[in-house]
Amino acid sequence: MDEKKQIELLMGNEAIGLGLIEAGCQVAAAYPGTPSTEILQAVIDRQQQAVEPLHIEWSVNEKIAFEVALAASYTGKRSVAMMKQVGLNVAADPFMRTAYLGVKGGMLTVVADDPGPHSSQNEQDTRLFCLQGRVPVIDPASPAEAKQLIGAAFELSEKYEMNIVLRPTTRICHSRQNVALGQPLELSRHADFKKDPARWAATPAFLPALHRKLNDNLAKIACEPDWQPRLTAGDGSYGRTALVAGGIVYAHLVDLLDELDLAGRIDLYQVVMPYPLNPDFKRRLEDDYERILILEETYPVIELQLDHPGAAGKQTGAVPREGELSPDVIYTALAAFLELPPPAEQPLERRGQRPSLCPGCPHRAAFYSIKKCFPKGIFPSDIGCYTLGMNLGAVNTVHCMGACISQGAGFFQSYRQDTSEFPTIVVSIGDSTFFHSGIPALINAVIQQTRMIVVILDNATTAMTGGQPVPHMGIAAGGRPTRAIAIEPLVKASGVDFIECCDPYDNNRFEQLLNQADAYIRSPEGGVAVIISRHGCLMDPAVRKGQETATIRILDSCIGCGKCVGAFECPALSLDTERKLALVDQDRCVGCGCCIPVCPVNAIVKEAKS
Amino acid sequence: MKQQIIVSGIGGQGVLFLTRVIAQVAVDRGLPVLTAETHGMAQRGGTVLSTIKVGNFASPLIRTGQGDLGLLLWDDNLTVHRTLLKSTGTILLNSEQTGEGIRLDAAKLARELGNAVLLNLILLGRAVREQAIFCSAEECVAAIRKLAPQRFVEQNLQAFQKGLTS
Predict the structure, then answer these.
(1) Residue B18: HSE in the Cβ half-sphere, 13 Å Cα cutoff
(2) Considering only CA atoms, which of A118, A330, A329, A352 is closest in space to residue A243?
(3) Helix crossing, A143-160 with A207-222: angle to 10°?
(4) First to last CA, chain B
């Protein structure tokens, strides 16, 4: 067989997914979230390569994914839970206790961080989370390395019976590289849960001993030879000076040193396992170097542990404390540290075009109607494509998965204390987010007698992350048919009496329902009103194909007021300010016609498609 | 051989597909390659950027002023991403207007083929014709055949050919 067939172009997330299959992982559970999503998708796409049974699931949330993988590990099999960095907050409860109780079969938690952030609500650092949770964490510097470390990480997990975290960042997850393929391991394990209540159901009486064991394990893991910082020695040009870096930042630094002709001239350490760090490494840096530059994303985790008297890093202000450490940022820090001339060219700080809901997106139609009906309303919203409802002024708060319903309730309680008049609160939440963590919040809102409108934006998919299945569609990971759990009975069982469903493309009916809901929440028997805004996601080709489409034209009677561009904000519409005329970009327009009722002079018309 | 390439556009224009085609050519030729791509919210019509580094590199990101070639699918992005390229770097862009770089109305050519999204491969064809990119026409055709969904292969190849001859 020719050698070339063993190399494939893989995205970091695909490399990790394939690495999991090759390492004999048998249970893989995840909740989608950028930049982690494609890992489980890769496991789904390549499951036929597994040589043993493999259960794959899109769990309802990250806590559930973690607990499913955890119990699978109790039976002696290899398992993995996968999520984005803020997903670990959702899974924090079982994650923290697992450090004490441990695992049996190898268990990895893959948590993808998002320095920048590019597509997240914060820049939290999973390595620091691991330091607090006392969980070993691995920080790969390339897609190929991420894949290569997975087998060894499972072995480490089994040797110490501990959960191990693999922390890729966006630039690993969403980079592609030529990656070597391997043969999947055949472990021939059979589920064998050995009952041990002192461990798996440990009461406080057992925890001091478990805590002691955890501390002993961490001390030993810190000294594991395969996981030590790797030194590329310099030629002595820069005596008693070293560079210390981890993750993708190490890779940026390698290229930069090459570009500056500094490769092999200064001692360079790659920290592969940033926690726990070997105390000998710390001592060695103190003894051998007067000055070290520490480069890491996003928090000073290595820097905190090293506590080196000659350190330059985030704590000393030598490296920016926030944002991605791009090659340009690293150049500036390195030049200052080594007293090189500062970089000649400064990167331009321009963000370009802002993202926007797609042309034809049903959320846009829903948001336009919400804003139109309640110009003075308060609009808590949530995590997903529909966050972009901000562009229409119909999203006022975005916090974390499921927060909008509880925040809506909090707004109501606070306003209601002051006066019997309260603003109309319209919460918007996507279908996947509703299942993830919206249901307990809805029950809470009902029992606390909240009066507000909850719009569930049901587009039948997890759109933002690329269309993962949702529980009400009756489809599980990889298209496997399963029981569908409908939204309406869940809402009803949560104690909601006002439930309506409407396609937001039908703006008249949708607005009528919004007004009815407003009357209901203000009536003596009123409470929470739920409207399900139901229309499939336009990213799904079947939805596009299944709906009527027309050619949208602007008549000469257009007055150039810009309402369709500003208030409706469809990317297919723009304004020619000189000619005072709205324009339709026919390449982008999907012909849904939702913009037609927006025009105050009826200058937007549709014609049959030619 | 070392080449640093940027592919710039807005979400939905086929920046990712073009990135994969170019990287696949490198893999097929046995060259090391790294790309960095924009996924997530920016894909909803926002500015997206891919970087491709062919040859012996460790990092997928391109530092300011280091890019050899820019393929710009959205001409407004020139002001945003120009600084990534060397002052001597080659710029190819889809544009109806005149200005810096090699310009062609690739969107118009793509529409003639039935879909504006094909402009990504028209631009690639032109880059090959200009010998601005490390790939040969045959290598690009092989990569397109490998990566395009079956029913779009012919249309994609037509677009590439159009770029090659435009």
Answers:
(1) 33
(2) A330
(3) 130
(4) 27
Q: SS3 for B45?
A: coil
| Chain Cα centroid distance, residue A68 | 20
Using an 8 Å Cβ cutoff, are A119 and B41 in contact?
yes
Interacting residues of A521 by C-beta distance below 8 A, sequence separation 6+: A424, A451, A452, A453, A498, A527, A528, A529
Q: Considering CB atoms only, which of B28, B37, B58 is closest to A142? A: B58
Candidates B44, B77, B88: best to mutate against A (most CBs of A within 10 A) is B44
Report how far Cα A346 is from the mean position of its chain's Cα atoms: 30
Say which amino acid occupies A579: R
pLDDT, averaged per 10 consecutive residues of chain A (610 residues), comes to: 70 98 98 97 97 97 98 98 98 98 98 95 97 98 98 98 98 97 96 97 97 98 98 96 98 97 98 98 98 98 98 98 96 97 73 89 98 98 96 97 98 94 96 97 98 97 91 93 96 98 98 98 97 96 93 96 95 94 94 97 90
- Collapse the DSSP code of B162 into the 3-class scheme (helix H, G, I; strand E, B; otherwise coil) and give the result: helix
CB atoms within 10 A of CB A531: 25
DSSP B38: -
- Helix A12-22 crosses helix A38-45 at what angle (to 10 degrees)? 50
**Alpha helices, DSSP H, located in A178-267:** 197-200, 207-222, 248-259
- In sequence order, the 6+-apart residues with CB closer than 8 A to the CB of A238 are A265, A266, A267, A338
The pLDDT assigned to A345 comes to: 66
What pLDDT is attached to residue A1? 41
By Cβ distance, the residue of B24, B59, B65 closest to A252 is B59
Give chain A positions within 8 Å (CB) of B63. Answer: 255-256, 259, 326-328, 331
CB A429 within 8 A of CB A457: yes
In this predicted structure, what is the pLDDT of residue A348? 63
Report which of A233, A211, A214 is spatially closest to residue A276, judged by C-alpha positions: A214
**Record: contact A356-B45, CB cut-off 8 A:** yes
Whether the Cβ atoms of residue B52 and residue B127 lie closer than 8 Å to each other: no
Tell me if B74 sits within 8 A of B46, measured CB to CB. no
Residues B20 and B35: their CA atoms lie apart, in Å, by 8
**Residue A66 corresponds to which tokens in the numbers above?**
């973690």
Q: ipTM of this complex > 0.90?
A: yes
Look at A387 and B41 and tell me if their CB atoms are within 8 Å: yes
- With contacts defined as CB-CB under 8 Å, which chain A residues touch B34? 142, 175-177
pTM here is 0.96
Q: What band does B166 get if pLDDT is binned at 50, 70 and 90?
A: confident
Query: What pLDDT score does A2 carry?
Result: 46
Q: How far apart are CA A248 and CA A168, in angstroms?
A: 8
CA A476 to chain centre: 20
| Whole-angstrom Cα Rg for chain B | 14
Residue A133 neighbours by CB distance under 10 Å: 20
Q: Predicted confidence band at B132 (pLDDT cuts at 50, 70, 90)?
A: very high
**Cα A418–Cα A392–Cα A503 angle in degrees, nearest 5:** 95
* Cross-strand pairs, A454: A427, A530
- Interhelix angle A327-338/A248-259, nearest 10 degrees: 60
Q: Which of B52, B151, B115, B17 is nearest to A588 (CA)?
A: B115
Residue pair A383/A120 in contact (Cβ under 8 Å)? The answer is no
